[in-house]
């Protein structure tokens, strides 16, 4: 029978004593992790949650307070309500601009826009015209009356009526024609901004994948007219930015500076940004902007302006997507002609470049510079970009 030796008491004490520091270390490490986690939660609560809750509570209280004032008929700030006179003035300004362009296009006569606006306001006050929400829709009889009031020769009326029908300002045509691509507009007058008279039109179109893209057009009211040959300028913002960077204030506005040169200025907003803001879109990537969003807007502008010159100006990432969009079209069109690429490289590009029919549609012509460099001319237009760090 084997003899079992008793354990050494000194060794047991050493083992027990070595376990205690490890226990203290684990407890201390856990406590530190908990303190760090609590610290992060506290910082997030103080810098984010608390501020957001305070803003929401303040806004709700502010809204309830003014709602109570309105219900009781008490006076409130003029900025919170729009008077009937202001609504009439805005509606008359929009219709006056449309009639101004119709008269100019059909007759070649420039009837001052303000005179047309005063006539419309007078007709509204007399009850001869009426507002439909915040717009004025005319009948054929009312249009003929306005033509006479504006002293436009009556023998132009047939052509004026046809143009008014095309522009959807007549009640008789609303039920027979499809809704236009634009969904809103506004007039910015010199009397309010101290700079000039501008029209801002909001458009919408859809990408090939069915994504809705909204964008704006800003023009000097009497600087351009439908059918002219003035160029279209498309302003493309940088990463995590929107088109408002081109129109900060009335005096600090690159968009208005260009519009003052009698150009058609379009303001592009990527999906999820600017007037396209809403739920975050995980497809907001450089490739998506190059392949879908920006081409959709540019093709809309080119078709609407009857292939007039189109100029792209991009800031930072806007310059990258503008350049690469047109470059991709041109590479696709001339892929087989580029001798510096291997067959493997061409096979790879063939998988990622836009389809040939898209390139053919968007680049009906191109021009070559020295060497093998290919530089595109979109519909005969020029393109330049501004890449500011």
> How many extended strands?
10
CATH homologous superfamily descriptor of the largest domain? Alpha/Beta hydrolase fold, catalytic domain
Sheet-strand content, in percent, reads: 5-15%
Assign the CATH architecture of the largest domain.
Answer: 3-Layer(aba) Sandwich
Q: Level of helix content?
A: 40-55%
User: Which residues form runs of ≥5 with pLDDT under 50?
Assistant: 365-389
CATH classification class of the largest domain = Alpha Beta
The CATH topology of the largest domain, please? Rossmann fold
Radius of gyration: 32 Å
Terminal residue distance: 88 Å
Question: Helix/strand-derived class?
Answer: alpha+beta
The helix-strand sequence is HHHEEHHEHEEEHEHEHHHEE
Q: How many distinct helices?
A: 11
Oligomeric status: single chain
Q: How confident is the prediction overall: mean pLDDT?
A: 78
Number of domains: 2
Largest sheet: 6 strands, mixed
Sheet with the most strands: spatial strand order: 3-4-5-7-6-8
Describe the structure.
- This protein has two domains: 90 residues; 199 residues, Alpha/Beta hydrolase fold, catalytic domain (Rossmann fold, 3-Layer(aba) Sandwich), CATH 3.40.50.
- Helices cover 48% and strands 13% of the residues.
- The strands form three sheets. Strands 3-4-5-7-6-8 form a six-stranded mixed β-sheet. The chain has a two-stranded antiparallel sheet with strand order 1-2. The protein has a two-stranded antiparallel ribbon with strand order 9-10.
- The longest helix has 64 residues.
- The relative contact order is 0.06.
């Amino acid at each position: 029978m084997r003899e079992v030796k008793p354990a050494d008491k000194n060794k047991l004490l050493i083992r027990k004593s070595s376990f205690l520091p490890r226990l203290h270390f684990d407890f201390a490490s856990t406590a530190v992790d908990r303190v760090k986690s609590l610290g992060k939660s506290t910082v997030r609560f103080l810098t984010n949650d608390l501020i957001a809750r305070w803003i929401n509570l303040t806004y709700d209280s502010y809204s309830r307070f003014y709602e109570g004032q309105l219900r009781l008929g008490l006076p409130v700030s003029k900025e919170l309500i729009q008077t009937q006179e202001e609504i009439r003035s805005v509606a008359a300004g929009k219709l006056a601009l449309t009639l101004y362009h119709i008269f100019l296009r059909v007759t070649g006569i420039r009837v001052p826009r303000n005179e047309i606006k005063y006539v419309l306001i007078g007709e509204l006050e007399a009850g001869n015209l009426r507002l439909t929400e915040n717009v004025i829709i005319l009948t054929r009889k009312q249009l003929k009356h306005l033509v006479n009031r504006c002293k436009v020769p009556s023998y132009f009326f047939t052509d004026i009526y046809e143009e008014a029908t095309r522009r959807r300002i007549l009640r008789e045509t609303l039920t027979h024609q499809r809704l236009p691509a634009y969904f809103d507009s506004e007039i910015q007058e010199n009397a309010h901004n101290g700079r000039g008279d501008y029209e801002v039109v909001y458009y919408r179109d859809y990408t090939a994948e069915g994504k809705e893209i909204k964008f704006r057009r800003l023009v000097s009211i009497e600087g351009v007219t439908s059918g002219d040959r003035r160029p279209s300028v498309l302003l493309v913002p940088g990463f995590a930015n929107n088109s408002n960077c081109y129109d900060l204030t009335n005096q600090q506005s690159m968009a208005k500076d260009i519009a003052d040169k009698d150009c058609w200025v379009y303001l592009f907003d990527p999906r999820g940004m600017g007037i396209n803001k809403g739920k975050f879109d995980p497809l907001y990537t450089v490739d998506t902007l190059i392949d879908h969003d920006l081409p959709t807007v540019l093709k809309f502008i080119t078709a609407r302006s009857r292939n007039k010159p189109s100029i792209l100006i991009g800031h930072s990432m806007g310059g990258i997507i503008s350049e690469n969009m047109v470059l991709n079209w041109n590479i696709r069109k001339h892929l087989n002609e580029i001798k510096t690429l291997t067959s493997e490289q061409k096979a790879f590009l063939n998988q990622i470049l836009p389809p040939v029919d898209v390139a053919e549609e968007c680049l009906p012509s191109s021009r070559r510079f020295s060497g093998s460099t290919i530089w595109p001319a979109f519909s005969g237009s020029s393109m330049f970009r501004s890449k500011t760090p």
